[in-house]
Amino acid sequence: MHILNFSPAHAIYTTPASPHKHRGPRKQRGMASPAGRSCTRYSKIPEFLVGPIGQPMPAVGLGTASHPFMEEEVRAAVLTALELGYRHIDTAALYASERVVGKAMAEAVQRGIVASREELFVTSKVWCTQCHPELVLPSLKESLQNLQMEYVDLYLIHWPMAVKPSKPHFPMKREDIVPMDLSGVWKAMEECHRLGIAKMIGVSNFTTKKLQELLAIAKISPAVNQVELNPTWQQKKLIEFCKDKSIQVVAYSPLGGQRIPKMNPVRQSDVLEEIGKARGKSVAQISLRWIYEQGASMVVKSLKRERLKENIEIFDWELSDEDRLKIDQIPQRKLITVQNLLCPEGISSVDISDVDVLEM
């Protein structure tokens, strides 16, 4: 296996940029606060200190899920994002984007865009078909081979659900769902951390109930819970729970998702549009700023340079109390559910109703 080395011979050594002047999220109990510095001279993206030792995690990252998967477009988006100052790249075994992410990062090194491996924050995830104690470590090793890296900064359980072993895919057959050995799977995640090939471990799409189950058996608490989060699905109960347990929330679909653009509740929000017009900001920027002010990180997906740039221009201004009150009153609607992952036909012998509990 060829490992992406980020050799110092190619490094561009810089002094840290001056902290970008902004008012970050109000510090609350148990919640990470911005580290108050930029990653490099290229970046103006603040970082959160996450996990038991406070490892820096950029407030905004690039998501690489694409359906259908478009390799060249994703490669170009990763390179463009890195040029603009993004340093967090989010991928997963399911996305089929790990190889292209690794190649794009190697190209970024060759072109001098990235100074060292330590400058990057890479997240990947283990899919439901590998959510078995004996398959977690092999799945991560395969992801590392695809990425051409020796470690990921964050490794997540993609969903709190297990499916009969197979290659990552969806939709999945309902009859293939099997009881999940959460304790065994998490012990395997902890082993990934112990081996140093996952600097931090966490979860995705976990409700407060699922987090309570995990915390009861975990020796290493999850550093992160990546969930659907935006002004039209605010997850207030979950955010407060995670703050109390020192779990960093990371928002996916922060702009309402892209699968059905004509039914996007964020981009079609009259409230967000009104606030944006009054402030000279886009609806996307209002949504992302609101998420940042909750103390949450986020991964945003875009293939367009102007959108990628716009998505990180949210740190030198803030919402007003009146803005926040209006956003608090937006009707709530969850778009991403476990049902989206399953074939409509068939019957599951495993009760997965607690995976999709709607917590307001």
Automatic annotation (TrEMBL):
Domain NADP-dependent oxidoreductase: 61-330
SUPFAM superfamilies: NAD(P)-linked oxidoreductase
Biased composition (Basic residues): 19-29
Keywords for this protein: Oxidoreductase
Stored InterPro entries: AKR, AKR4A/B, Aldo/ket_reductase_CS, NAD(P)_OxRdtase_dom_sf, NADP_OxRdtase_dom
Keyword Transferase assigned: no
GO MF entry, a single one: 3''-deamino-3''-oxonicotianamine reductase activity
Disordered: region residues: 13-38
Any one Gene Ontology BP term: siderophore biosynthetic process
Sequence similarity: Belongs to the aldo/keto reductase family.
PANTHER family in the cross-refs: ALDO/KETO REDUCTASE
Protein name (Swiss-Prot/TrEMBL): NADP-dependent oxidoreductase domain-containing protein
Organism for this UniProt entry: Panicum virgatum
